[in-house]
């Protein structure tokens, strides 16, 4: 009786992201780092030998390797539902599932930041690697997932180096940070002033600090408001009366007061420039209506951007990323194709190895049975190698199965590079097998 062919494992991804689910559902699904090991252990106990979980604000998904996508999907859905404390049937409509080639493409796209709310965001690959590391530590990253993720990192590297998908800012805050760098370079060497307590101003200030700014001073007509923001941003406070002095010391000035009157005018900024010996100032006006007199922009050494200007920069960045995404997808699809082709070739290796071993064994027996007669050994070798295929072909022909013989012939021709000979009607046929010579 022929040995049963083992089921082949393939990648499966099940998850919920910003397109398929609500934020409230993703909040409940979110797996904290401290909970990741127990979560992976539950998947192992449920029968999955390999699993990598990715848990971010945009998505919660699990990559696994299994032979049956239906049972694998059920295991993952049940595990995620249990973690969220929700019925599995209630969550089913919030999830997506990708199997085999579709799963490979999904993993490559996520790792290359082509499946994110913000195309090209740099954090996502680090998040994938963090999930990968935790799966390794839990003993849940076997050879299939390891090879898949390493290939995904290679695709992401190509996208990052061969396209400009992550180079342009796509939010107002990111645009402000990029422009500040364009004017002053390294932000860690800069000083800044925030006037007011507007939400956008605080957001931009926070991004500047995250990007390296170390010296920020907050001013507000109400001292308590300035102190509150300073605690949030971990920065300095100064009274409004010191605005002229702080302005002269600031490379970056953020205005976010929104009092419907100008806080900074050309005379004040000109005086600050004079004290700075004409060292440039980058002014960001996030208030609507503005806090800074537009006439300030006529001064040499001043770079003034308001919300409209920053939004335009962000829009251009988003348009650029959309354009670059087309080239990025071409790279990803090429890498997916190469990965699947390589996997298919590797899948043939065990069978080819077994065939080579079989041929070598038949050769040894033929040489032994021929007793040193080279011609007889050759004849024996050919006959014995053809014995199994000949019997199989006759069996297929005798079965009368529609198309069975034709399919077997095509496979035979392809494997051995044969050219079909035509019959009397011009149809390609296989030459009849010769008599099996099995005895020496």
Describe this structure in words.
By secondary structure, the chain is α/β, with parallel strands linked by helices. It has three domains: 10-167, 2-Layer Sandwich (Beta Polymerase, domain 2), CATH 3.30.460; 186-314, 3-Layer(aba) Sandwich (Rossmann fold), CATH 3.40.50.720; 353-429, no CATH class. The chain has 15 helices and twelve strands. It has a six-stranded parallel sheet with strand order 7-6-5-8-9-10, sandwiched between helices. It has a four-stranded antiparallel sheet with strand order 2-3-1-4. Helix 7 packs across helix 13 (307-370). Residues 1-6 and 430-440 have low confidence and may be disordered.
Compact description:
With about 450 residues, the chain is an alpha/beta fold.
N-end to C-end Cα span: 27 Å
Portion in helices: 55-70%
Largest sheet: 6 strands, parallel
Task: Report the CATH superfamily of the largest domain.
Answer: Glutamyl-tRNA reductase, N-terminal domain
Indicate the multimeric state. single chain
**Name given to the CATH architecture of the largest domain:** 2-Layer Sandwich
Low-confidence stretches: 1-6, 430-440
Query: Which CATH top level class of the largest domain fits?
Result: Alpha Beta
Number of helices: 15
Topology, number of strands: 12
**What is the CATH T-level topology of the largest domain?**
Beta Polymerase, domain 2
**Principal-axes shape call:** elongated
Integer count of domains:
3
């Amino acid at each position: 009786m022929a040995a049963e062919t083992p089921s082949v494992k393939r990648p499966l991804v099940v998850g919920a992201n910003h397109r398929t689910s609500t934020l409230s559902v993703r909040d409940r699904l979110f797996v904290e780092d401290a909970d990741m090991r127990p979560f992976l252990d539950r998947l192992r106990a449920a029968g999955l030998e390999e699993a990598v979980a990715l848990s971010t604000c945009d998505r919660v998904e699990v990559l696994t390797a299994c032979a049956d996508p239906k049972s694998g999907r059920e295991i993952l859905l049940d595990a995620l539902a249990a973690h969220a404390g929700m019925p599995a049937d209630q969550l089913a409509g919030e999830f997506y599932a990708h199997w085999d080639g579709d799963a490979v493409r999904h993993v490559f796209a996520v790792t290359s930041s082509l499946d994110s709310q913000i195309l090209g965001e740099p954090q996502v690959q680090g998040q994938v690697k963090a999930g990968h590391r935790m799966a390794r530590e839990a003993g849940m990253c076997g050879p299939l997932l390891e090879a898949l993720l390493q290939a995904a990192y290679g695709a992401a590297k190509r996208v990052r180096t061969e396209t400009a998908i992550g180079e342009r800012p796509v939010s107002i805050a990111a645009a402000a940070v990029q422009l500040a760098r364009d004017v002053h370079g390294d932000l860690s060497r800069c000083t800044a002033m925030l006037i007011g307590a507007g939400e956008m101003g605080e957001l931009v200030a926070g991004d500047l600090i995250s990007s390296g700014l170390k010296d920020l001073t907050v001013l507000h007509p109400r001292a308590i408001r300035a102190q509150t923001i300073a605690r949030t941003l971990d920065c300095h406070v100064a009274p409004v009366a010191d605005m002229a002095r702080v302005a002269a010391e600031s490379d970056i000035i953020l205005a976010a007061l929104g009092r419907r009157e100008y806080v900074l005018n050309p005379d004040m900024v000109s005086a600050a420039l004079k004290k700075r010996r004409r060292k440039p100032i980058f002014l960001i006006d996030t208030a609507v209506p503005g806090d800074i007199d537009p006439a300030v922009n006529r001064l040499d050494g001043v770079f003034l951007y308001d919300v409209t200007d920053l939004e335009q920069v962000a829009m251009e960045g988003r348009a650029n990323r959309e354009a670059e995404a087309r080239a990025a997808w071409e790279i990803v699809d090429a890498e997916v194709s190469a990965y699947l082709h390589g996997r298919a070739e590797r899948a043939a290796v065990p069978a080819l190895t077994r065939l080579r071993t079989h041929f070598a064994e038949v050769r040894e027996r033929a040489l032994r049975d021929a007793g040193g007669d080279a011609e007889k050994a050759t004849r024996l070798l050919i006959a014995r190698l053809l014995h199994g295929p000949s019997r199989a072909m006759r069996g297929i022909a005798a079965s009368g199965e529609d198309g069975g013989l034709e399919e077997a012939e095509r496979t035979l021709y392809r494997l051995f590079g044969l050219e079909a000979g035509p019959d009397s009607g011009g149809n390609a046929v296989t030459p009849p097998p010769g008599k099996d010579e099995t005895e020496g």
